[in-house]
Structure formats: C-alpha cells, structure tokens
Specification:
There is one protein chain. The chain has 16 helices and 11 strands. By secondary structure, the protein is of the alpha/beta class. It has a domain of 253 residues: Amidase signature (AS) enzymes, CATH 3.90.1300. An 11-stranded mixed sheet has the order 1-3-2-4-6-5-10-11-9-7-8, with helices on both faces.
Length: 490
C-alpha cells in the first residue's frame, strides 16, 4: 500500500492503530514533495524539520496511550495567507516576503489541536487576487495534470499539493471561487464553507465580507473530517457564527431518498462540452441514487461577476491601505520617488511591493468608492448583491441543493490569459455568487476532457447546511471514480 495514495482518514487509522509511525508517514510525503515539487511549484516552503519533530511528538503521545485527534498523523499544507506564529506569512507578495507572523490563525490552532502535522506553506496569487496562481510574486505553480497549464487560483498551490499527492489535505481560502476553481482544474475536491462557519481570525484579508477558509482533499470524507476540525465559533472574529458544528462524517452515511436538487440549466449553454456532460451526468447519477432533480433558476446570477468585481476590489482597496511601509512589511525609501518625504515613501513602497493585478484591483476599488462614483458603482453593486441573495433564498425554498458547473472551461495554458484580465475574471462566472450570498459550495471531480484534463461540478446548499452538501457529494463519489484518477507528473 502506498501511503501517498491513502486518504487522511486511512492515514489516521494506520497511525492510531500502530501499523505505521507518524515519522514514516511524514517522511514519505516530504520525500515525494522534495522529489517532484521542483516541477510543480506547489510549495513556497516545506517545514521538514518541524514536521518531523511534530511527528515524533505525536508518536510519543500515541505510545503513552493518550487520546489522539481525528487528524493525528495527517500531513496538511496551508495556503500562505494564514498567519502562523514564528513562520513567514507572505501572501506570495514582495510586500510581505520577509514578514514573520507574531500570532497564529484560529484555523491553524484548531488543526494543531486535532493533532495535524503541517508540512509547508503553499503558493498562491498575490494577496489571493487571481485565478491562476500566475500572479504570485514568488514563483509559478503548474497543474500536475499538465505542467504547461495553470492550477487555478488563488489557492493554486494548495490544490496542486493535493493533486500531486504531496499531502492528503490542504487548507485554502475562497473569496470568489479560490478553493473550488483550482480544485476543479486539478481534479480534487474543495469546499467553501458558509460565511461565518470557519473563523477568519489570522486570515490576511482580501475582501472581508467574502473571504472564507476551507479545505481541499481528494475525497469528500477527508473534507468532512477537516471541516469538523476547522469549524466553530471564535470570539476573536466578529463575523464568526455561534452555530453548533455537526458530525459531518456521520452525515455521509445518510440516505439520498427525498433530497431535492435544483439543476441550474441556464448555466449549461455556456460550457465546455466535457463540463456540460459532467453536470448532466451527475444529475442522472444523483437521480439514480434517489434524489429528485428539477430545474431551478438564479435570475440575477448573470450579474455576479460584475457585482463581485466592484465589491471585492472596494474592500481590498480598504484592507490593503495598511501596507504603507510604516508598521510592518516592505519599506522603500523615497530617494528615487518624485514626491520625496513621507508621501514619496508610501508611493515607492506600494509601487515596488504590489504586483500588477493587486494594483489593478486597488485602483478599481478606490475608484468605485470615490466621491461622485460611490452611488453609481459600489452602492449599486450592494443592491445587486441583495437580489442575488434573494434568488438563493427563493431557490432553497424549493430544493435542498443546487447543481451546476464549477468552471466554464478546463485549466488553460500558462500565459494564455495574462494579457486579458476580463477573460480571466469570467472564469469565476459560476463561483462568485456563492460568496456574494454567503452560502456553502463544494466542487468535486466529475470527468475528463478528451485531452485528459479534469473537470468539476459544483454543489451549493443553504447557509450552514454543509452536512447536506457533504452527504450528497459523498454519495456521488461513492457511485463514481473520478476522484480516484491521478495525474502522472513523473
């Protein structure tokens, strides 16, 4: 049995039962990453020594007979957007390239409390702004299925680390599809929980009303275990919801009979043929398992991208104002700047520290919030967001889940959309509305193109109904084998 092909659930069982040691598990994954990640570029940093020391610590805990967490012995990668005390948290930006976090994000604290082993931080689009991981200032990540294609973004390194079997679980963040889109491109599963389900304390902010932390894994069962660890109320996050956290793994065993699924038929006309076939095939599979599938519409979803690309950059413009060269991060003196002095230092620091896409979004957001334009752009976007939220509310009065595509096309080639940001933004066509509405959404593998590239389907549920989402996705995976397919990076 290959450890790197085992699920997190199986690794935990093997370790707890004493069949393998924690060091053996970690060593196996580290060696694979060290051998092949030079081709993929999923990691910005591997925590080799720390991970092995952690494995030995957990081994002693196991040998003493102490109770172990559900993630004991499981190697996990973390997107470079979550603060981890004593570690660099760079957001793949020159602005924070040498920033060492003085505290730890709640999400990471909870993983460690559940005995997980963190093996490294993964690459991403700078400050989570992008859909290809080409916007990283610190290197390129490639899709393990085709090294000439993008892994998606902004959690591209996280998705690639799972797809390439460098770890069974990765933690990412999702502001407009940044977990689900790369999951679809890389042939793995990815979950964006309900807004407020997982604490954002210690998550470096992009758009505060949209950001959410979530897991990526090969199997839905592993997503369920990871979410149980991550979820729960946190008083340090004012947006954290005081809701009970269910046993998500138990929900996977529930029957499908009577579950009502709304098929988003209007999205099927805008798709790559393989993705259209994946969605319609999934509808047939779920119906055969006992679900009732019927057409449902989200009338204002067509305005989702325009709405998102006003709200998200506006919030980013505000959040990124803190990177001024004064308090922390990069500081560039104004010697060569036209204005000189303090204002010159601000300009020189932000000009040197931010990449082109981050600058584009800051300017977009600043313009939308400026005097004379606020009502025409930002305020109108907030009104459109309310209409999108109302569409979801009405849809969920009829059905339990929504079924549609995750992306309009499979992974594109590196550099293909670099000079066409609008086309790149349209890759978020089917994912942004879940963030605008605050609902949970999950992407699972559902097919391959003629070129052998993976494609995904998306399921969305009512707020805080991740249990139903995981149940249906788990049943779908039990009836198919798309999630077992793996790329050949050798």
């Amino acid at each position: 049995m290959s450890l790197t092909r085992s699920s997190a659930i199986e690794l935990n069982r093997l370790f707890v039962s004493g069949e393998v040691s924690a060091r053996e598990i970690v060593q196996t994954y580290l060696e694979r990453a060290e051998q092949w990640d030079r081709r993929v570029g999923a990691f910005l940093e591997l925590y080799r020594d720390e991970a092995l020391a952690r494995a030995d610590e957990l081994q002693r805990k196991r040998d003493s007979g102490a109770e172990l967490g559900a993630l004991a012995g499981v190697p996990i990668s973390v997107k470079d957007v979550l603060c981890h005390r004593g570690h660099v948290t760079s957001c793949a930006s020159k602005m924070l390239q040498r920033f060492e976090s003085p505290y730890t994000a709640t999400a990471i604290e909870r993983l460690l409390a559940d005995d997980a082993i963190l093996i490294g931080r993964t690459n991403m689009d700078e400050f989570a702004m992008g859909g290809s991981t080409e916007n990283s200032a610190l290197g390129t990540t490639r899709n393990p299925w085709d090294l000439d294609r993008v892994p998606g973004g902004s959690s591209g390194g996280a998705a690639a680390s799972v797809s390439a079997d460098f770890c069974p679980i990765a933690i990412g963040s999702d502001t407009g599809g940044s977990i689900r889109q790369p999951a679809a491109y890389c042939g793995v599963s990815g979950l964006k929980p309900t807004y407020g389900r997982v604490s954002r304390y210690g998550l470096v902010a992009f758009a505060s009303s949209l950001d959410q932390v979530g897991p990526l894994a090969r199997s839905v069962g592993d997503l369920a275990v990871a979410l149980r660890s991550l979820a729960g109320y946190d008083g340090r996050d004012s947006t954290s919801a005081p809701r009970e956290v269910p046993d998500y793994a138990a929900s996977l065993e529930e029957a499908m009979a009577g579950v009502r699924i709304g098929l988003l038929e209007e999205q099927l006309s805008q798709l790559h043929p393989a993705i259209r076939d994946a969605v319609t095939g999934a509808a047939e599979t779920l119906a055969s398992l006992g679900a009732v599938v019927e057409p449902v519409a989200l009338p204002h979803a067509e305005y989702g991208v325009a709405t998102y690309y006003l709200i998200a950059p506006s919030e980013a413009s505000s959040n990124l104002a803190r990177y001024d060269g004064v308090r922390y991060g990069l500081r560039v003196e104004a010697a060569d700047h036209a204005e000189g002095g303090l204002v010159g230092m601000y300009g020189a620091t932000r000009s040197r520290g931010f990449g082109p896409e981050v600058k584009r979004r800051i300017m977009l957001g600043t313009y939308a919030l400026s005097a004379g334009y606020y009502d025409a752009y930002y305020l109108k976007a907030l009104k459109a967001r309310r209409l999108i939220q109302d569409d979801y509310r009405r849809a969920f009065e009829r059905v339990d889940l929504l079924l549609g595509p995750t992306t309009p096309s499979p992974a594109f080639r590196l550099g293909e959309l670099t000079d066409d940001p609008l086309e790149l933004y349209l890759q978020d066509l089917f994912t942004v509305t879940a963030n605008l509405a605050g609902v949970p959404a999950l992407s699972v593998p559902a097919g391959l193109t003629e070129e052998g590239l993976p494609v995904g389907i998306q399921l969305q549920a009512r707020p805080f109904d991740e249990a139903r989402l995981l149940q249906v996705a788990g049943r779908y995976q039990a009836a198919t084998d798309w999630h077992t397919r793996r790329p050949r990076i050798a």
